[in-house]
Inverse folding.
């Protein structure tokens, strides 16, 4: 689940292939007010069309920011997180999400007029679709919508077994991982979903594994795309979860399993061909090394700027480590999140709260008492009143930047706090 603090970019032109992936757009809610004085990049209106921000937001939508690039993503994560902790979402919120689906089963980020059929030029997005599948499958009662969405995802699988955010583009680790999670949530066996060239999603995902190649400190990492082939913590967190056939919701870790770095010799894996589970373990080892080096959080930085804490990616790393049974390693960055993430989430919106709820759930922690914040109540306050809530207490979830650490302000304003699955134009070359 991007995507967190990441590089600010100009808003893409319509249908340019802009990508908001896994933690996508959490913090497009924390408007990018720095820069050239233009409208926030993530919310700029498409040329020739009115901004959704200038209109009344649809009934049932979570968050208060323009949903142009992240509506389905943040709605899906919000509904899924609520369901995971026993909150029954408002019917209007679920209706809004279902109504965003195109007739062919795909979802795009936002359809301002869902009553109109999706046009051929509508940019269908595998990440938004896979997120919606995970939410609707969990909620139940939406079998037709889930089946149609899964059918569409299968139809746009790349020959190597991978997926890109925008069909027809080269695959990437993040998109492939979130689709694997969707397949599993829908009751499919990801290993049985094969491309025209008989490659599975795991075959596709492992093409982004660096493994024993490159510098020792990068061993086990995944790269975002083959082009550039640099270790990327965001892609590694996604892939370490996806390689285990898991999605956004991970059951609390059981007996502790130590992480195992890849066994390398002369730049190659000693064991020869590596399984998806072994690749996930190597990815977890890379994440632990990065977390230990940086004080139990991951980093994000603009070129030429000082690295900043990457809150959303750290939350994803917690989920990835828990998915592999690495409970002790997951709890260390979770403790950092408990101390540092609440203000980031308040600035960033529903998907950020959802990420933290799911990180707490994966470690068996209480999301209603997360470093002094009731994440569940705060998440509920970003959308329509839930149909049923149990065990909650009142928590003020209004935006308030008072007392926010300097680095959260810097990340939130300069980078768009919480943006994790990045716009496709940038190279994911950070460690």
């Amino acid at each position: 689940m991007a995507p967190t603090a990441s590089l600010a970019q100009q808003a893409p032109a319509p249908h340019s292939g802009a990508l908001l992936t896994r933690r996508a757009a959490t913090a497009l809610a924390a408007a990018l007010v720095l820069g050239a004085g233009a409208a926030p990049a993530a919310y700029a209106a498409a040329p020739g069309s009115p901004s959704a921000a200038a209109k009344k937001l649809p009934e049932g939508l979570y968050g208060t920011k323009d949903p142009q690039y992240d509506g389905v993503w943040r709605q899906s994560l919000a509904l899924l997180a609520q369901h995971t902790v026993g909150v029954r979402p408002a019917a209007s919120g679920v209706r809004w999400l279902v109504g965003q689906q195109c007739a062919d089963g795909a979802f795009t980020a936002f359809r301002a007029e869902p009553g109109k059929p999706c046009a051929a030029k509508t940019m269908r997005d595998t990440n938004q679709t896979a997120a919606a599948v995970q939410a609707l499958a969990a909620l139940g009662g939406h079998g037709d919508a889930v089946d149609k969405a899964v059918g569409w995802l299968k139809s746009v699988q790349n020959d190597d077994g991978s997926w890109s955010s925008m069909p027809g583009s080269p695959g990437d680790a993040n998109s492939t991982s979130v689709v694997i999670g969707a397949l599993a949530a829908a009751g499919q066996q990801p290993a049985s979903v094969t491309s025209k060239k008989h490659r599975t999603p795991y075959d596709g995902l492992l093409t982004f594994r660096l493994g024993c190649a490159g510098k020792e400190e990068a061993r086990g990492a995944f790269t975002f795309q083959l082009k550039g082939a640099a270790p990327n913590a965001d892609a590694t967190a996604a892939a370490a979860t996806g390689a285990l056939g898991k999605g956004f919701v991970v059951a609390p870790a059981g007996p502790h399993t130590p992480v195992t770095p890849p066994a390398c010799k002369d730049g190659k894996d000693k064991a020869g061909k590596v399984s998806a589970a072994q690749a996930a373990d190597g990815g977890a080892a890379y994440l632990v090394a990065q977390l230990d080096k940086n004080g139990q959080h991951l980093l994000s930085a603009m070129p030429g700027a000082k690295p900043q804490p990457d809150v959303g990616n750290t939350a994803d790393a917690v989920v990835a480590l828990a998915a592999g049974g690495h409970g002790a390693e997951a709890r260390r960055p979770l403790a950092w999140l408990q101390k540092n993430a609440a203000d980031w989430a308040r600035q960033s919106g529903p998907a950020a709260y959802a990420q933290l709820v799911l990180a707490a759930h994966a470690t068996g922690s209480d999301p209603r008492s997360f470093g002094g914040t009731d994440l569940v109540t705060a998440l509920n306050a970003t959308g329509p009143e839930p149909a049923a809530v149990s065990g909650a207490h009142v928590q003020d979830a209004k935006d308030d930047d008072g007392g926010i650490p300097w680095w959260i302000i810097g990340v939130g304003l300069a980078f768009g706090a919480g943006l994790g699955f990045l716009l496709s134009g940038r190279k994911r070359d950070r460690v």
